[in-house]
């Protein structure tokens, strides 16, 4: 019992569970996840390249899309090391500090993505509800300041999490449910009082995801009000079509995120594979689908991509 007060950070590592549910199919499962990584990484790099090269895309909406692509690359590279170590190299052990670092970056990029999606909804609101002032409201300087503010706010919110965990004694089994380190998973292991950790975690979830999602809904309520005031049905559909990509990006981010939170908080007796599946969807689907959605729905990106892949000229 005397070891219960010892801080794990200097003596212990965590064991990442991996995916025993696919025993016998590990190589196929690893190949599948690596394919998802390849699609995510190449897709987001292509989006960044196209926006950089295509002069017509040098406007606020696509600056925010560039930031979203950089953020999605961050999500992919945050989980890749331990996924490779666990599935491909069969090294499930990860050092305490390395685990906390990975946890920080995974949650940092999640909070940042929420802020970017909010900024993109404001862009759509100004473009549709106040188009005459679009260029004066969303100047390059304001877009840059918005991006920097999102990053700073996300950093400040997530920064305390590793330190709040590091102060606790870990005396339970150090087996994690996933192949990467998440705060809801880590907070189950300390034998000390985790009230502060749980309260702070809930606070930042509500203050970030909660506030962002409400403001996104509000912006779309105002957009819908403006669109319904347009006399022509064709013009209404054309205007709404400019929001489809962003709406899809919001849904593929928030639906898995809410599902993961619900499973972790209220599904304590759910099978482990449910937790793992929901976390995989949350961390893999948005970075993979965002570039695909914007490539399909954005004419300029689609043309440039077609030119790159097929060498055709327009």
From TrEMBL:
InterPro entries, per the entry: GPCR_Rhodpsn, GPCR_Rhodpsn_7TM, Olfact_rcpt, OR51/52/56-like
Gene Ontology annotations of biological process type: cellular response to lipid
Record key words, sorted: Cell membrane, G-protein coupled receptor, Membrane, Olfaction, Receptor, Sensory transduction, Transducer, Transmembrane, Transmembrane helix
Coiled coil regions, renumbered to chain: none
Gene Ontology molecular function: G protein-coupled receptor activity; olfactory receptor activity
Domain G-protein coupled receptors family 1 profile residues, every copy: 43-294
Primary location class: membrane
Any one GO CC term of the record: plasma membrane
Transmembrane segments: 28-51, 63-84, 104-122, 143-165, 202-228, 240-257, 277-296
Keyword hit for Oxidoreductase: no
Membrane topology listed for this record: Multi-pass membrane protein
Subcellular location as annotated: Cell membrane; Membrane
Function as written in the Swiss-Prot or TrEMBL entry: Putative odorant or sperm cell receptor.
Similarity field: Belongs to the G-protein coupled receptor 1 family.
Name this polypeptide is given: Olfactory receptor
Gene from which this protein is expressed: LOC102511688
């Amino acid at each position: 019992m005397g070891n219960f007060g010892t801080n794990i950070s200097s003596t212990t590592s965590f064991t990442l569970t991996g995916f025993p549910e696919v025993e016998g199919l590990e190589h196929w499962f690893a190949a599948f996840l690596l394919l998802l990584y390849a699609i995510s990484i190449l897709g987001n790099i292509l989006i960044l390249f196209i926006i950089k090269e295509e002069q017509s895309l040098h406007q606020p909406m696509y600056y925010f899309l560039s930031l979203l692509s950089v953020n999605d690359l961050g999500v992919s590279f945050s989980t890749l090391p331990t996924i490779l170590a666990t599935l491909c190299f069969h090294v499930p052990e990860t050092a305490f500090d390395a685990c906390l670092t990975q946890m920080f970056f995974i949650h940092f990029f999640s909070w940042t993505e929420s802020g970017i999606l909010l900024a993109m909804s404001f862009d759509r609101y100004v473009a549709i509800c106040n188009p005459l002032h679009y260029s004066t409201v969303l100047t390059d300087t304001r877009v840059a300041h918005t991006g920097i503010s999102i990053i700073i706010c996300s950093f400040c919110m997530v920064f305390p999490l590793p330190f709040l965990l590091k102060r606790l004694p870990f005396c339970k089994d150090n087996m994690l449910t996933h192949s990467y380190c998440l705060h809801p998973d880590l907070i189950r292991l300390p034998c000390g009082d985790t009230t502060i950790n749980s309260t702070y975690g809930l606070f930042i979830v509500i203050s970030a995801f909660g506030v962002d999602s409400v403001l996104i809904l509000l912006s779309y309520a105002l957009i819908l009000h403006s669109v319904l005031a347009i006399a022509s049905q064709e013009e209404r559909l054309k205007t709404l079509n400019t929001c489809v990509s962003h709406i899809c990006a919001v849904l593929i981010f928030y639906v898995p995120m809410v599902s993961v939170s619900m499973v972790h908080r209220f599904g304590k007796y759910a099978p482990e594979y449910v937790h793992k599946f929901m976390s995989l969807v949350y961390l893999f689907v948005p970075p993979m689908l965002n570039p695909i959605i914007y490539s399909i729905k954005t004419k300029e990106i689609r043309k440039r991509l077609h030119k790159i892949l097929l060498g055709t000229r327009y």
